[in-house]
Amino acid sequence: MNQDADMSVCDVGDDGDVTPPFVFARSKAVTRDDFNVFKDEIRNMIRSLFSEQKQETKHFTTTLVEIKNLTSNVENAISLLSSQYQELNNKVLQLETKCKEGNEQIHLLEDRIETLQIAYRKPNFEIKNVPKKQSETKSDLVDMVLRLSSTIGCDLKREDVKDIYRVRGKKEQRNSSIVVETSSAMVKSDILRLSKAFNIKTKGKLCAKHLGFLTSEDTPIFICEQLTTKGARLYYLARDLAKSAQYKFCWTAYGKVYVRKTETSQVVCIKSEAQVHQLLIKE
């Protein structure tokens, strides 16, 4: 066995005794002062930790307070906004109600005005597409109407014409309408009835020569009621309805517009554009 290896396992004393390898040299004894120093260091360390925790806790508490205040401010702001929104919503509802009431009043007034206009125009009729004479006077217009009356076999007198005037047309429009205000709705009805009968019986329908024109005498003329602006619009739509949906009859009477599908169908009075659209959808 190697001697160096044996010496690494155990030491031999001066007197020849062998010291076992697991026996260590005794360390220096710990004194009370050393223990106190150690205790103070531990105490200081704990104090330092507590101090840091206290600072962190204080900071955390301050942050929580700030968050709480911020949350409270946000809640107050939301509450205020909610209150303002509710107030605005109530105002909007009130305005919508007033607007609806206002629209109903407007429709009511429009209907009343329409009724008054229809009543005012009951004795009136219109001659459309009439050529215009140079330096035309009201007396010339009355003579045209009297000539027309004689042609269709109506005994119309000059005093039956309360007023007469030509409607202003577009500048490029050479032929415009003449409005005739008669003494009564019955006179107007006779003119319309006899004019229709003349066009049915006579091969040559009413034209400018029947008003006494010597030039442009073949220009066709049309006798009809004087409708209101709304009535004229409804009559235009009703004629389109009659063509599209194959309504056999479409006419006006005392300012109102009527359509009828067949001879046995129910007569429908057209009162609005929406009604015309509904009739088109049904078809």
From TrEMBL:
Residues 71-119 form a coiled coil. InterPro entries: FP_C (IPR057251). It holds the Pfam family Baculo_FP_2nd. Keywords: Coiled coil. It comes from the Eukaryota. Residues 228-279 form the FP protein C-terminal domain. This is FP protein C-terminal domain-containing protein. It comes from Euphydryas editha (Edith's checkerspot). The lineage of its organism: Eukaryota, Metazoa, Ecdysozoa, Arthropoda, Hexapoda.
